[in-house]
Amino acid sequence: MSEPGGAERILQGEEDAQEGEAGSLTADPFAAALAINAVETGASLDPVAASFLIEQTRLVKIQIKHFEHERVLAIDAALRKKFSDRMRLTLQVIATSIAVCAFLWLVLIVWGAVTSEAVVVEPFDTPPTLTASGLSGKVIAADFLDKLQNLQAQTREIQKAVRTSSAWASD
Predict the structure, then answer these.
(1) CA–CA separation, 130 vs 124, rounded Å?
(2) Global pTM?
(3) What is the DSSP letter of 46?
(4) What's the average model confidence in pLDDT over 12-41?
(5) Residues sharing a CB contact under 8 Å with residue 145, sequence separation 6 or more, in sequence order
(6) Cβ-count burial of 35 within 10 angstroms (0-12 exposed, 13-18 middle, 19+ buried)?
């Protein structure tokens, strides 16, 4: 027996290619066997077999063209998916950033309201007798705020005095 060479090696390689790659392009095994047999024997091909091989060659070229077209479409689809994934990720990052900023803004507003020491006194309506004597709601509210600020200033002075003196200085 001869070593696997020539026709056997080519046919075996085709089978390996068919097993290794799903959907790979291969010729008809019968056409391949005819061509290999003609090459090994050196005989001329029968005209019917030659036309069959020509037809097989044409079909393989069509398959190659179709494969190339599908490859280009697959690459385009992969690029579109990559772009879509990047856009989706970008929009998610933007949406998350906006949500985090809104949450922090809300937390700052609530924190400011909780820790605020400001007092708001809005002007109010006064009876006509007080308004006639010049004491409108704005004047009374402003006078109340002035007295409140004086009281606050006195409280701060007392707090400073307590902080600066030590426990051992007083009886």
Answers:
(1) 12
(2) 0.43
(3) P
(4) 61
(5) 119, 121
(6) buried
